[in-house]
Structures are given as structure tokens and as C-alpha cells.
Specification:
This protein is mainly β. It is built from six helices and 27 strands. The chain has helices at 33-36, 38-52, 185-191, 280-288, 328-331, 369-372; strands at residues 20-26, 57-65, 69-76, 81-88, 95-96, 109-119, 122-136, 139-153, 160-163, 174-175, 199-203, 215-219, 232-235, 247-250, 252-255, 258-261, 265-269, 276-278, 294-295, 302-304, 315-319, 322-326, 348-350, 352-354, 365-367, 375-380, 385-390. The protein has a 15-stranded mixed sheet that branches. It has a five-stranded mixed sheet with strand order 14-17-25-18-24. Strand 7 (122-136) and strand 8 (139-153) form a beta hairpin. The relative contact order is 0.19.
Length: 391
């Protein structure tokens, strides 16, 4: 759960008055104990996601938190207080107060509801308000549900989350109205005719800096200036529990000539998870294909012997007829970042890791931030599909 060039674009679609908004994502600096827990945090998050399943476009900048999260600046209230919120396609509630406290203004309306959301290892609990939310100067949402976090855990360096997952994930997060679904920021932006459609474009990129605004997200469409190929789309999966999220099917996956995923299986695409994760038996196949590779007990990361790095091969995911390749560099944490991840600078580590359970349970892989640093991602709620493009 990156660096930023400021992207501001207003696009006109025919004679439409809709806008497409891209906003910056912000990278903050964290290291040591925070980073070295990333594999455990990712596995806890996936376990939680799996179990929990019982106008135009506006582009804004995105910034990386350390090397493990992307955030964007969101204004809440009038006048707005700006919060650094993690961009999360794996959850759907929006909240603040984990760092900068929620500031109530004359647009803040208490709903009488308590709100509680668990994110694997982390959580927040508090009260719900309806408030004005500023995603960009030309994208201001009225009466958006906001959680005021009165207690929380594992949100170091950020103020909360902007949840852009499926709306159904909000069910069960309110009390006493436990059956109520909460419209997400995307739902309300469409309903209030601020954007034309429920499509989110995500641009992440590798960085060599711990505080780098090098990413962007686009509300209401895609930003074609951020990718260089056509977008390769695949429909959302119907396999449970991946179907409760931005879930897709991978036809198969290979590491060199070794089949890591031997047959079609379902998983999810999640901006709130850092690594690329496979079910334990699939991960074991990947690890066994790299001589000397082993899990490091200190960091939880997959250690790759330096002697094996020159012989490493591409990891290829085949989605329908599309080949999405992670070259060797994409599979490795850059050596100059090793210390920040809590690792031994004399060793190399991989961004591939395990889910914490074997395959066959309906969620066999997770494509997180490190995958999206190689491919532009499109979360298309209008057409129930996910897309990828080369950057």
C-alpha cells in the first residue's frame, strides 16, 4: 500500500463538458523496519482481501512513499485541508486522520454512523462524515463519505486512504447501517457529472529516490501521453473471491521455460500492495528455477545469489493473447535500495513473493505496485475490465 512530474490536462471529448483529471502521487521517505516488513504486510493484506470477500478525464500527480506505496494529495472540506492519501484499488472507503487530523468545516456533515475497515495488518476506526472532496481544481465532489480515523494502525507517513475499489467492498464497514454500501469517490464523480465514466488510469514508474513524484492517476479515463502502446484489455474474472475486487484471469505464466502458472487462474490487480505475489506452490516453482534462491528470514524477501543474477530469465504473464513480460531488472530490488528495505547490501532481493497459501482457492496471484511500475494500468468499471499498456 512514487516521484512526480506534475501532470495537468483538460481534454474535451466531442462537445462534452466532462474533464479528465490526472493527479500527482507523492513519495515519502521510509526505511529500515518499515520497509523490511513489506512481504509480511502484503501477505496479510491478501489474506484479508481473500477472506473479506464472504466529463472527461482529469490527471493528477502521484508520489511514492518510500519504495512501497503511492499517494496523492486530496483536499477535504471548504476551505480544504489537504491530506496525503494512499491510492488503493483494493479497498473502497476514503478516510483521513491517521497523520494530519480531520478538520471539520461548514461542509462537514456527520451521518451518525461509525466506520471500521481492516486492511490485512492495518485498520482504521472512527466516525463517518459527508464532506466536500477536492481531487483536482476542476474535480470537486459534494457530500462524499469520509471516515474520520479516531484509531488506526500501520499508516506511518500517510494521512489515510482514497479507496477506488468496487463499491461492494464498503458493505459491512458502517454501524449501525451494516448493510449499507457507500458510494466511492469514482461513483460520486460520475453521478455529479464531474467525469464521464468510472475509469481510473494509473501510472507508476521505477524510481531511484525515496521521495519522488513520478506517478500520476487519471480520474474518468486514461492519459495517452503516459503510455506508448495500445491498451490490452481483459475482462474481470467471475472466480470468487477474486471477483469481489479488480480480479482478472491469467492464462498461464512462465519463468524462462518453466511454467509458474500452468493453467488459467484468477488473481487481482491492486495498487495498495507493493510486491508481485503468487500462491505458495506457484512461488516455490519460481524460486526453484533460480539456483540458490531462498527466503530471507530477516526481511521476508526472496534472496537471489549474485552468481545467479546473470542467468536469470524473464517472467512472462500471458493474459488472453497478450504477453506481459517482467525482465530481470523488473524482478529485482535495485541494489542501491537494499539497505532501505532492511536487507544486507551484499545480497540481492526479488520483488516476487508468496501469498501465504497454496493455489486453487480463487485468488492465486496479486499484481501490485511493482508490476504497475512496468505497465500503465486501467481500471475500467464502465466496461468491467482491466487494461495494461507499455510505458
Amino acid at each position: 500500500m512514487r516521484s512526480l512530474v506534475t501532470f495537468t490536462a483538460a481534454l474535451l471529448w466531442g462537445t462534452s463538458a466532462y474533464a479528465v483529471v490526472s493527479v500527482p502521487l507523492t513519495r515519502l521517505q521510509l526505511s529500515g523496519e518499515y520497509l523490511k516488513g513489506s512481504p509480511y504486510a502484503d501477505r496479510a493484506r491478501v489474506a484479508h482481501l481473500k477472506n473479506r470477500a464472504a466529463g472527461g478525464a482529469v490527471t493528477v500527480p502521484a508520489t511514492s512513499l518510500g519504495y512501497v506505496q503511492y499517494t496523492t494529495s486530496v483536499g477535504i472540506g471548504d476551505p480544504p485541508t489537504y491530506y496525503n492519501l494512499v491510492i488503493d484499488t483494493g479497498s473502497s472507503n476514503t478516510f483521513c486522520g491517521a497523520g494530519t487530523k480531520y478538520v471539520r468545516t461548514n461542509t462537514s456533515i456527520p451521518t451518525g454512523q461509525n466506520v471500521n475497515v481492516t486492511y490485512g495488518r492495518g485498520y482504521f476506526a472512527g466516525v463517518e462524515y459527508l464532506d466536500q472532496v477536492t481531487l483536482a481544481p476542476n474535480l470537486i465532489i459534494k457530500n462524499q463519505s469520509i471516515g474520520d480515523a479516531l484509531s488506526y494502525a500501520y499508516f506511518a507517513g500517510v494521512d489515510g486512504i482514497i479507496g477506488v475499489g468496487p463499491t461492494a467492498l464498503t458493505q459491512g464497514t458502517l454501524y449501525p447501517s451494516v448493510d449499507m454500501e457507500i458510494p466511492t469517490v469514482m461513483d460520486n464523480a460520475v453521478a455529479q457529472h464531474l467525469i464521464e465514466c468510472n475509469i481510473l488510469g494509473v501510472y507508476f514508474a521505477p524510481t531511484d529516490s525515496t521521495n519522488d513524484t513520478n506517478g500520476a492517476i487519471t480520474y474518468g479515463g486514461v492519459d495517452s501521453s503516459l503510455y506508448v502502446s495500445s491498451v490490452m484489455y481483459t475482462p474481470l474474472t467471475t472466480t470468487y473471491p477474486a471477483s469481489n475486487f479488480w480480479g482478472i484471469n491469467v492464462t498461464y505464466a512462465t519463468y524462462g521455460s518453466t511454467f509458474v502458472i500452468p493453467q488459467s487462474t484468477a488473481g487481482i490487480v491492486d495498487t495498495g500492495t507493493t510486491l508481485v505475489l503468487f500462491a505458495d506452490d506457484l512461488f516455490a516453482t519460481y524460486m526453484a528455477a533460480i539456483p540458490g534462491a531462498q527466503l530471507d528470514n530477516t526481511t521476508g524477501l526472496l534472496e537471489i545469489p549474485w552468481s545467479s543474477v546473470p542467468e536469470m530469465e524473464p517472467l512472462t504473464l500471458i493474459i488472453d493473447t497478450h504477453y506481459l513480460v517482467m525482465d530481470v531488472a523488473a524482478q529485482l530490488i535495485p541494489s542501491e535500495q537494499t539497505t532501505a528495505w532492511g536487507g544486507d547490501p551484499s545480497k540481492r532481493y526479488s520483488i516476487i513473493n508468496k501469498l501465504g497459501y497454496n493455489s486453487g482457492q480463487g485468488l492465486d496471484f496479486l499484481l501490485g505496485q511493482k508490476f504497475m511500475e512496468r505497465y500503465y494500468a486501467v481500471f475500467d468499471g464502465r466496461n468491467n475490465r482491466v487494461g495494461f499498456a507499455y510505458t
